[in-house]
Amino acid sequence: MSALNPTSMERIKLLFFSLIIVVLIATSLKCLPESANCCHLEPISGAFSFVFPLMGHVAFPLFYFIGLLVGWYQVSGGLNCWLDLGEGIAIAGLGYAIAEVIVFRQKNATNRIDERARKAAHIISNLSACLLIWVLGIQTTSYFVLLGTCIGIILIHLKLIGMKIPGIEEWLRNVGREGEIPGEGALYNALGILFALSMLRNDSAAAISVILILALGDGFATYIGTRYGRHKLPWNRNKTFEGTIGFAAGAIFALFAMPVTATIFVVVLATIIESLPLKVNDNITLPVVSSLVYLVCIH
């Protein structure tokens, strides 16, 4: 079977691995320099670790409601803020992404013949997030991204159960990839942004830098790799040296937002990670790693 239509046993495995990984991640984050931002995340991330594996299942509405209820309780009770809610959901999404790789070892989405529309949407959405941070600040931007993510999760579930959603069908035909969950790239992209906003909540420039790396690095890599790529990477035959250089060329624009030595290190590390044959979606791995490196280097 596949992530698009998992068996009952596969869902159980996804739930098990997601929960274990989420608890490990949430607990590990408390060791970071600004560990106060990572306190009391286990209830939120733990509740949402049941949500992602159940997308497309009859039990999804119940567990999604429970996840939102737990998040609201944590925020209204003063234990967490809205940024923490976004972080908890992002951690749960990362745990699910890793669990997918463990359960579906052969999961592999097929690139579109023409990726221009997909990458254009990717770049525009991320640059829009950067603009919102610059104009409105991280807190207000997080409201928009969090709301969009929560709505997106519902839309993915409805699509998986076979419901036709006006507008979404056309969008998926233009940007979707065969073999991936409908809207998977956009979902992980939003979760990656939520993680960056929460981790770097006190440094707008660093958050913008992370999102620029995700937007322009990935966009340049696809364009240059597709158009000029001739030399395959020895460690990843699906990517080229030209595409990797394109990623670095796009990611280096992050220096305009964060002109410090740490940015160069983050760009180099992100370029290496993007070139590796990892199965976990890089829309979430890149912002997670980049945010954590910034958090350690500049605080």
Compile the SSE list and pairings.
Elements: H1 8-28, H2 42-48, H3 60-76, H4 82-103, H5 116-136, H6 138-160, H7 168-175, H8 184-199, H9 204-228, E1 232-233, E2 236-240, H10 241-251, H11 254-257, H12 261-275, H13 282-298
Helix pairs in contact: 1-4, 2-3, 2-4, 4-6, 4-8, 5-6, 5-9, 6-8, 8-9, 8-13, 9-10, 9-12, 9-13, 10-12, 12-13
What is the compact description of this entry?
The protein has about 300 residues and is mainly alpha-helical.
Give me some keywords for this one.
mainly alpha, globular
Q: Kindly report how far apart the N and C termini lie.
A: 45 Å
Give the integer mean of the pLDDT values: 89
Q: Please trace the helix and strand order, writing H or E for each element.
A: HHHHHHHHHEEHHHH
Low-confidence stretches: none
Q: Helical content, roughly?
A: 55-70%
Structural class: mainly alpha
Q: Which percent band covers the strand fraction?
A: under 5%
Radius of gyration: 18 Å
* Overall 3D form: globular
> How many β-strand stretches?
2
Describe the 3D structure.
- This protein has a two-stranded antiparallel sheet with strand order 1-2.
- The protein is mainly α and 299 residues long.
- The protein is built from 13 helices and 2 strands.
- Helix 1 packs across helix 4 (82-103) and helix 4 crosses helix 8 (184-199).
- The longest helix is centred in the last third of the chain and has 25 residues, at 204-228.
- The mean pLDDT is 89.
- The protein has 2 domains: 1-107, no CATH class; 114-299, no CATH class.
